[in-house]
Structure formats: structure tokens, C-alpha cells
Automatic annotation (TrEMBL):
This is Glycoside hydrolase family 92 protein. Coiled coil: none annotated. The keyword Hydrolase applies. Residues 1-233 form the Glycosyl hydrolase family 92 N-terminal domain. GO terms for biological process: carbohydrate metabolic process; glycoprotein catabolic process. It comes from the Eukaryota. GO terms for cellular component: cytosol; nucleus. Gene3D superfamilies: 2.70.98.10, alpha-1,2-mannosidase, alpha-1,2-mannosidases domains, GH92 mannosidase domain. Keywords: Hydrolase. The keyword Cytoplasm does not apply.
Length: 752
């Protein structure tokens, strides 16, 4: 839950930190979300060290006046350092700041310059990332210096407000003191010495409020070091104190760092790579990306203010629309126990709120971006772990009940949870001209496509549970994408690209959205972000991109687009004319779609070009927001030479960037190994090389496809060997099951 870090005053800074040294540091806050859009998320309860003030009353406590630059290294970068479980920076005031954390508490270490004879620390109660606090409370215990407080804050991406609380204790590092030498609360830039409490019951937005404390200098060193332990809670200040005391009882900074580092090392080491012949940059990119896939959702267990439960509680689903494609299938490969806890938490939310969580932050429902994308997440879990669900304390019946709530029951506000179910069931698509008081008439085409995939996911769970009628029902609804396919629409300027996903009226007549809409080729420079005025039918991408999104039945899509050759030509055009958008999730599966047309070498080539062009380990090494680990998990799969099909038992296959990769799954206690024979390295530009899969064996036996692996390979702990070639004209193989499955060709219909 706690993600302690540096906040800067750079604009559009949703996650707090900015590596550009021209921006000021403004505080070290305890809660963050990673790589999201929307407004700034969290950034609550900033601490700030003051090396020098002429007097207590003259100290700059306001964020605007206290801010300062960081020191800058000779290469022009800020003097910051970070690794899993640790962050450090050197401020221009001479204060060194180090941070670490446990699950619900942070530990700060402030080392003041020798000139600082009255080191002080500001506790900022109100300045979250949006300056949204109301009803703030701050208290100072004059005996111990403990600061407690809290406030109400605005949601980052939704309509609600949440309560958050903190508890801050201080200790000398290498020396003891009984209490601060000075204390007081502050309002704005005015500290009031010896004041101990502010309780402001105020319905509007306030100026800044917090506490200021002065500490005795160390008698043992020319540099005074102060430890600040910060507990956080969404329940109460008392619980924030309990969290800190139970998780970091001894203020031991080095031990807390070591514990965090050991935890991260164990988790990351479940996927091992052979680095022989691989650039260090690729290895660092791989593990940095894998690390970021484990930041969200966040474990808020014990911190749910809305109801009491013995089930786990996870938050920071920001949003499922971003993460369902790649993050959870990656979790299946190496972290199933945590995946199970997340699923249990999602089911528990449905049991109390009626529908699965979609976008959620700081215990609040936030705006849905697409369909009910919790459905493929739960489908992903049960399809892969149904034989172990009971051992993981996941009720398959409760899981299915939660899925049916999304599929069959319309919520009062389907902008925040669930689906526009009534209309979906009535028309088998979402019409452009049906207005419903329960939500906003936008994203009709993209929601139709995502509802279709959600129902496909439900059909796969129904199959496991032997619900034959439901299998037929939801597989039929999985084919509803056909109802927004207009075979007559062509790409302006290129009549050979024929047939598009398009908006449609309730009477069956077609509406029209230019296929270039919301792409770089759009003559109107339109956007398709979350906006009630957007009536084009698509969210965050173009009809050209969404017309490729039928992951449950790509074989049918190829037929609709005129066969393999036309399909390949369309894919090539999507890349060559920059319709493919590496910064946004709807494009993620497109590079691997050549597999379905029996040209996996082209998929390998495209995916490697994307890594070469868009990913590196520099500050600008991500193509846009990380979106709560969505872009990170996307990169991990590409570097592994795989792409997942959520809620199925298949992974599309290319070649890894490493001569050998191993996956350890602690649930099965098995280790799966993928060996790339003839590995000669990775071309810098992603073009060419001995990287194309010619043949595959599993445990020494010839495998039936060069294009995908089945989940059983990872359950058993098999050894997979890939024979690589420099010939891009490889195929999936000769057998009837060589091509990846699709519904219309009999895939996904048999037993699991």
C-alpha cells in the first residue's frame, strides 16, 4: 500500500516523481500510484526537511515557499538513486534523504549538513497531488513529538472523496532524544510555536495545514540524522500508528531495506534469464519491467473502510482496461498465490458492491474506460488454476456468480461498475442512439468488442464448471462483434482496406466514424479520451486499430478482411502508416496477429522492432504512461518471445531475447525452461537476425505448432527447445492444430 517517494512540482505529474532536475522537490509522500493517466493520484502526507531557519516562526512551511532543487550530477541528471525497496536524493540545501517502506508504513532517514544546528521536519497533512484536502485534522503529542492527523481527499479519476490518516514518530539515528525542542502547527506559511492541534470542519478547500518540529542536534556527529516513521491508514490515525509500530518496530532503516530487497529478489528471481550474448541494457530493461508489474494493484488488506471482511482487499486497479491483456497472464506464470488473493479481493468487492471492480483508487470507484474487464481477469485465473482454486481459497462458484453479475445485471451507474447490460442483451451490440440514465452514451463500438471478449471469458469458466447451456450462451454472445462490422466501409484513399468496426443505430442502420479517427492520420486531429462529448464510438484508439480486436476469433476476422493476404496487407499498413500506437493498450496484440495468418516470422520482426524503437532504460525509455504495469508487462512478454491470450490456456510464441529462460511457479513447484538454440544475439534495430522459430520441441518431442505453447507446458515444468533460423518465412507448421485457436475454427470449444 505504501509507496514512499519524492514529489516534484513538474506539471502533469500523476505519480509524483520527475527525473528532470529543473523541477523542484516539494516533499516526500507516502502513497502513490505508478504511471497512470487521469489527475495526480494520491501523494499524501508529505514530509520535508528544513536545514536552516532564522527562527521557528520564520520557517517556510508552505509547499510553494519551502520547495528546493536537487543537487545535479556532472552528466546533468539529479543526484538521485533508487532500487527496489530504497530511494535516495541529495537536496540543494545539503540534506540527504533516504526512503524505504514496509506494506503500510514508510521509514525516512534525513541527514542534515554540519551547519544545521536546529534540524527541523515539516509534516504536511493537506497537500496531496491535487491540493484537494478538506476537513483536515492535526495533533502533536508534546511529550513524544508524535504527529497524527488526516483529511478527506479527492479521487484521481472519479467522483468520490476518501479519508486518509497518518501517524509520524521521530527518532535520532545514533543518539536519543526524549522530545522535540520546538513544536507547533502551521497554516499556510505561518508556523505557530507551541500550538498542538488544528481541527477544521470545513466544507470547502483549505490552505495548507501541518506540523513543524525542531530536534536537538546529534552530540556524537557533525551530521545530525533523524529517522521519521510514517504509518498510513484509510481507517484511522490510531490504526496508522498500529501499522507503523507493528511493521517497523525498531526504526531499523537498514533492516527494512534488506527485508524489502530480499522480498523483491525472491519474487523477481522466479523468472531467470541466461545473459550470455545479451546486451546489459536488455537484461536491465527486462527486470526493471518485471519489477513494475508488481506495483499495482496494491495490497490494502486491513485498510478497507467500507466493510469488514476476513478476505484480502486490493486497491489501485487503475484500470483493469489497461492491465487485463498482459499483467495478469504474466502473474499466472510466476506469482499465482498473489493472483489468487487479488481475485478473492475482487470477488469480495462484488459481494458487497454488486459488481466486480473496474477502475478503483484509494478505496473509491473510478470511471470505467471500456468493458467489464474484471471478467477476463477472473477468467484468466480459473482457466489456468481451476484444479488448485480450492487450495488457493478461491471459490469457483463465487467467482462465477461475480462474472454473471457483470454479464446479466445492470448497475445504477455503469460509468463506475458493470456494463450497460440491458441494452447489450436487447440488441447484441451497443447502439449509438440509445441513451440510458445509468451512464454516458460513449464508446459504443469499443464496448461492444470488449463485452464480446468478456462473454468469451465467461464461456471458458462455464466450460470448466460444466454449465453446458451457459457455454453456448456466452460463446454466442462472444460473437456479437459481428454486429458492428460494416463490410462496406473502406479506408479513405485506399479502397483495398475494406470492412471496419463501425457505430450502428438501434434500428440496424449504420452510423459512420472515419477509420482514421483518433489516429495520427485523422484530418480532424480528434481525441477519443474519456469525455461525455465523444460520440464517435471508440475509446483511445482508431477504428483501424479496433477493427483488429477479436482475440477470441481472429480466424473469423481474417475471413472478414478477405483472407490471409489481405489481412497481412492490412497489418502492414497499420504499421507503415502509423495507426499502430505503442503508447496505448488496444494496439498491443497487433504485432503478434501475423501468427493467425501463418506468418509468425513477421510477428517476431514487428515485435522486436517495437522494443528497439520504443523501449530502453533511459528516463524516456517508456512509450507513454506505464499504466499500472500494463506497458511493463507488455515489454516483459515481448522480451520473453511470447504474447498471452487472457482467459485461455495458450501463449503465442516467438523467440526470446535470451538463449535460455526459466519460469519457476511456486504453486506447482515446477520450473519450465525455454531454450533458444542457434541464439546469436539480438539485432540492435530489431530487424533480421537468427531470431525466427523454425521448429519446437517439448520435452524432446516434436511440438505440433511453432506459433503457440499450451499452459500444460508450464504446469508440468517442461523443457521447450526452439530451433532458430534467419529465414523470416517460417510457418506455424503443417498440422490442423498448428495455427493458434479461434472460436470459429473449433478452438476453445472442447474440454479444458
Amino acid at each position: 500500500m505504501v509507496k514512499v517517494g519524492l514529489d516534484t512540482d513538474s506539471p502533469g505529474n500523476q505519480a509524483g516523481y520527475d527525473a528532470n532536475p529543473i523541477f523542484n522537490a516539494i516533499g516526500f509522500s507516502q502513497l502513490h500510484d505508478s504511471g497512470t493517466g487521469g489527475d495526480t493520484s494520491l501523494s499524501n502526507f508529505k514530509l520535508w526537511p528544513l536545514a536552516e531557519c532564522n527562527s521557528f516562526a520564520s520557517c517556510n512551511t508552505s509547499l510553494f515557499f519551502r520547495k528546493t532543487l536537487r543537487k545535479v550530477l556532472p552528466d546533468g541528471s539529479p543526484d538521485d538513486a533508487g532500487s527496489p525497496g530504497y530511494f535516495a536524493t541529495n537536496l540543494s540545501t545539503g540534506v540527504q534523504v533516504e526512503l524505504t517502506a514496509s506494506r503500510r508504513a514508510a521509514l525516512h532517514r534525513y541527514t542534515f549538513p554540519s551547519s544545521s544546528r536546529e534540524p527541523r521536519i515539516v509534516v504536511d497533512i493537506t497537500n496531496d497531488g491535487m491540493n484537494s484536502a478538506t476537513e483536515p485534522v492535526v495533533n502533536i503529542n508534546t511529550t513524544t513529538g508524535r504527529v497524527t492527523g488526516g483529511a478527506r481527499f479527492a479521487s484521481s479519476f472519479g467522483p468520490g472523496r476518501y479519508n486518509a490518516y497518518t501517524c509520524v514518530d521521530f527518532k535520532g539515528d545514533g543518539y536519543d532524544f526524549e522530545a522535540p525542542t520546538e513544536y507547533g502547527v502551521w497554516l499556510g506559511n505561518t508556523p505557530v510555536r507551541n500550538s498542538t492541534q488544528v481541527i477544521q470542519l470545513y466544507s470547502g478547500f483549505l490552505s495548507e495545514i501541518g506540523a513543524l518540529l525542531t530536534f536537538p542536534p546529534s552530540p556524537n556527529s557533525i551530521h545530525t540524522t533523524i529517522l521519521a516513521r510514517v504509518g498510513v491508514s484509510f481507517i484511522s490515525s490510531d490504526q496508522a500508528c498500529d501499522n507503523a509500530e507493528s511493521e517497523i518496530p525498531n526504526f531499523d532503516f537498514d533492516e527494512t531495506v534488506t527485508t524489502a530487497r530480499e522480498t523483491w529478489n525472491e519474487l523477481l528471481s522466479r523468472i531467470q534469464v541466461d545473459t550470455q550474448g545479451v546486451d546489459k541494457e536488455i537484461t536491465e530493461l527486462f527486470y526493471s519491467s518485471l519489477y513494475r508489474t508488481h506495483i499495482s494493484p496494491a495490497d490494502y488488506t486491513g485498510e478497507n473502510p467500507n466493510w469488514s471482511s476476513t478476505e484480502p482487499y486490493y486497491d489501485s486497479f487503475y484500470c483493469n482496461w489497461d492491465t487485463y491483456r498482459t499483467l495478469y497472464p504474466l502473474m499466472s506464470l510466476h506469482d499465482p498465490e498473489v493472483f489468487a488473493r487479488i481475485v478473492r479481493g475482487m470477488i469480495n468487492i462484488q459481494q458487497h458492491e454488486g459488481w466486480l471492480p473496474e477502475c478503483r483508487g484509494a478505496t473509491l470507484q473510478q470511471w470505467i474506460q471500456g468493458g467489464s474487464n474484471g471478467d477476463p481477469i477472473l477468467g484468466e485465473f480459473l482457466v489456468k488454476f481451476h484444479e488448485h482454486a480450492s487450495a488457493l481459497n478461491v471459490s469457483a462458484n463465487d467467482l462465477y456468480t461475480a462474472l454473471l453479475a457483470d454479464a446479466e445485471e445492470q448497475p445504477p451507474n455503469w460509468n463506475l461498475q458493470g456494463r450497460q447490460t440491458t441494452v447489450w442483451k436487447q440488441y447484441n451490440f451497443i447502439p449509438s442512439d440509445v441513451y440510458d440514465s445509468g451512464g454516458t452514451a460513449t464508446k459504443q463500438v469499443s464496448r461492444t468488442l470488449e463485452y464480446s471478449f468478456g462473454d468469451f471469458s465467461i464461456s471458458q469458466v462455464a466450460k470448466i464448471l460444466n454449465k453446458t447451456d451457459d457455454v453456448a450462451k456466452y460463446q454466442a454472445r462472444a460473437g456479437n462483434f459481428i454486429n458492428v462490422w460494416n463490410e462496406k466501409v473502406t479506408l479513405p484513399g485506399n479502397s483495398s482496406i475494406k470492412g471496419m468496426m463501425q457505430p450502428r443505430f438501434a434500428d440496424g442502420q449504420w452510423n459512420y466514424t472515419d477509420p482514421r479517427h483518433c489516429s495520427v492520420n485523422d484530418p480532424l486531429d480528434s481525441t477519443c479520451y474519456l469525455d461525455v462529448t465523444n460520440h464517435d464510438g471508440f475509446y483511445e484508439s482508431s477504428p483501424m486499430v479496433y477493427s483488429q480486436y477479436i482475440p477470441q476469433d481472429t480466424a473469423k476476422l481474417i475471413l472478414l478482411q478477405g483472407g490471409n493476404e489481405s489481412f497481412i496487407n492490412r497489418l502492414n499498413l497499420i504499421f507503415d502508416q502509423n495507426y499502430f500506437d505503442v503508447t496505448d493498450e488496444p494496439s498491443q496484440q497487433i504485432p503478434f496477429m501475423y501468427h493467425y495468418a501463418n506468418r509468425p516470422g513477421l510477428s517476431t520482426q514487428r515485435s522486436r522492432m517495437i522494443i528497439a524503437e520504443s523501449y530502453n532504460t533511459s528516463v524516456s525509455g517508456l512509450p507513454g504512461n506505464d499504466d499500472s504495469g500494463a506497458m511493463a508487462s507488455f515489454a516483459v512478454f515481448y522480451l520473453l518471445g511470447m504474447y498471452p491470450l487472457p482467459a485461455t490456456r495458450q501463449f503465442l510464441l516467438a523467440s526470446p531475447y535470451f538463449p535460455k529462460v526459466t519460469f519457476h511457479n511456486p504453486l506447482f513447484n515446477t520450473t519450465t525452461t525455454i531454450i533458444a538454440n542457434n541464439f546469436t544475439g539480438n539485432p540492435q534495430d530489431g530487424i533480421g537476425g537468427t531470431v525466427f522459430v523454425k521448429s519446437v520441441t517439448v520435452d524432446g518431442q516434436s511440438w505440433h505448432s511453432n506459433c503457440y505453447l499450451d499452459w500444460d507446458v508450464f504446469v508440468k515444468g517442461s523443457t521447450v527447445e526452439l530451433e532458430l533460423t534467419s529465414d523470416i518465412n517460417t510457418t506455424c507448421g503443417e498440422g490442423s492444430d498448428a495455427l493458434p485457436p479461434s472460436l470459429s475454427t473449433g478452438g476453445y470449444s472442447g474440454s479444458i
